[in-house]
Give the backbone structure.
Amino acid sequence: MSLKNSNLVQAWLVLLLATLFGTALAGIQAKLGPVIEANKVKETMAKIPVLVLGEDLAAELADDNQTLTIKSRVVEVKKNGITKFYTVYDAWLPEGKMIGHVVKADGQGYADKIELLVGLDAQGKRITGLFVLAQKETPGLGAKILEDAWRGQFKEKSTEKHLSVVKGSGAKEDQIDAISGATISSKSVTGIVNTAVANVASRLEVTAGPEKNKTPDLQNKEPSKNKERS
């Protein structure tokens, strides 16, 4: 076999293998996708008490064998010709008092999409917690957005102030200290929080009690191509 024919055969072999691997990966993703999403919903429901109550009060509630009443709904935001849907989880104490909300939000990180859960108080005036639901940032650098100490900076921040990222100068009331060597990841998370808060915080009022707050059918529908969803 000539060198030319050998190279041609190798090229076709590489193409065939790439196609086979691509098809296999697509099939795996199609099977695992629903499982991954179901696990995210399960993790979200488990994190809501901590995000709206804090670790200590959430633990006390669990110790008393009590649970929050949690209902999900969709908040639709239209800006610049784009419609974005945010999944919002409203939470009530066992006695029926509204205690807070958790907003699912996402955006581009340094490596890939970052998905967040942003806890807010009942009035939407204060951030009560932040959890990273999914991320693929650089291990040892951007992945430090997972650490409690860094995420804890967002707690108690006012939703009426735009948060900015600073490098090692000590964060003020409206600032977040960047992770050393991972400024982009730090800014990505802060930007996602800022956008979600700006879009949703003023639209969180729920007048009905938990027994009357029905989950909208919209949350089970996929947005069209000019719509985004968190």
